Structures are given as structure tokens and as C-alpha cells.
Amino acid sequence: MKEKWHRWLPLIFVALFAASRLPGLLPLNFSAAYAFVFCAGVFFTGAMAWWLPLLTLLGTDIGLDIYYWHHGVAVWDLPDLKNQLFNYAAYAALIWLGRRFKPESPFLGLLGGGLLGAILFYFITNTASWFFNPFGNPEYTKSLAGWIIALTKGTGGFPSTLEFFRNTLLSGGLFTALFAGAAKLSAPAESPAEKTAGTREPDGETETEPEEAGV
User: Fold this and answer.
1) CA distance 37 to 54
2) In this structure, what are the phi and psi dihedrals at residue 111, rounded to the nearest 5 degrees?
3) 3 three-class SS
């Protein structure tokens, strides 16, 4: 039974992540995306670790853009598209981070990796928004003060960047725990042969009769 569930794990992850992106379901920046791409790097094999999460993100982003466009929100403007590119660069970095771990890594280690991924996403996206400034925010001056504003206060008239970071960190930890826990609970148990694979048998001591000296 565990082997069957483990085989379906990528599709289960995709379905849960897609469902979490329904408009209005979660608070701003409280998303399963950070944990999804990190855990994809950990638990998905080969090229699937890259193309499946990125295509899932692209498909759900297009669906969300169409939804908001029908509700009068400008989502196809060049600044918005540039901002989404920053997000995808951060997602790729999180997949790369996940590839540094193994499915057999301790649960707490994976949880720490998911939290680190959320922190990386925050720094990458906000630093890119400050440096490239696609929306032309006057607060984002090309100085240390402008960068600090991008990482803490953000744009006037919107919730502070630190509030977004809080939601990013909390959701990164929560969903990483859920995804990693599900993956470990559904992993098939190792057989005794697999546990001893690659280990050497202890060298047996063999006694040999001493050769008689020639006469």
C-alpha cells in the first residue's frame, strides 16, 4: 500500500498545491508554493524535479491571471510580467536547494531546508524588485536605504514587506512539514537486503596449515 501511495506522491503534491491557489483561500503570501518547489527538489526524481513544479506554477499562474483579468485587474502589463519572472528565478533556486537534500534526510533537516527556502524567496524577490524596480516605486532608490526599505517597509499604501515575510515563513514551514511528513509516511520500508546493500561482510579468519619445510 505504501509503495502505491509513494508512486502517486508527485500528483498528490501537484493537486494539493493547485487547490491551495484558489483565489481568496489563503492570506497574501501565505502559500504552499515555497514548500512545493523545495519538496519537489527533494522527493521528485530526475528532470521531473524541475519541469513538473515549474509547469504547475506556470499553469496555475495563467489561470489566476485570467481570473483577475476578468475582474478588471491589469495582469498582462510588462511590470507585472517582469515581477513574475523574479518569482520563477526564486522558485528555481528553491528547487536547486531541495536537490541538495535527500528523501532520507531527517524530518527536522527538511523542515529547516523549507524555512531556509522561504527566506531565500523573500530575499531574492524583494532584492530583485528593489534593483530592477519594474513598477517604478520612488521609495526604491539605488542605495542601501532603498534596499532596506524594500526588505522591510515596501511600497506605500500596501502592507509592509515584513508582514509578507511573516506569512512566507509561516507557510513555508507549515507546508514543508505537511509535504515532507506525507512523503516519509508513504515511503516504502527498506527490506533487510536494501539496508545491508553496499556493506562489506566481515572478513572471516581462515586458518591454514603451515607448510612443511622442504627436506
Assistant:
1) 8
2) -60, -45
3) helix
Question: 151: part of which helix (H) or strand (E)?
Answer: helix 144-152
Instruction: Give the pLDDT mean for 36-51.
Output: 94
More confident residue, 173 or 75: 173
Please give the Cα distance from 42 to 96 (Å, whole number).
Answer: 9
User: How many CB atoms within 10 Å of residue 164?
Assistant: 19
Cα 131 to Cα 150: distance, rounded to the nearest angstrom: 9
- Side chain identity at 42, as an amino acid letter? V
Q: How confident is the model at residue 184 (pLDDT cuts 50, 70, 90)?
A: confident
Name the phi and psi angles at 182, rounded to 5: -65, -40
Query: Are 41 and 49 a contacting pair, CB within 8 Å?
Result: yes
- Record the pTM: 0.82
Q: How many helices (H) and strands (E) does the chain have?
A: 9, 0
pLDDT digits (tens, 9 = 90+) for 82-120: 889 999 999 999 999 999 999 999 999 999 999 999 999
Q: What is the mean pLDDT of residues 61-73?
A: 89
Reported for 184-189, long-range contacts at CB under 8 A and 24+ positions apart, including other chains, are 184/103, 184/107, 186/2, 186/5, 186/6, 186/9, 187/2, 187/6, 187/103, 188/2, 188/3, 188/6, 189/2
Q: What is the dihedral of CA 78, 130, 127, 162, to 10 degrees?
A: -110
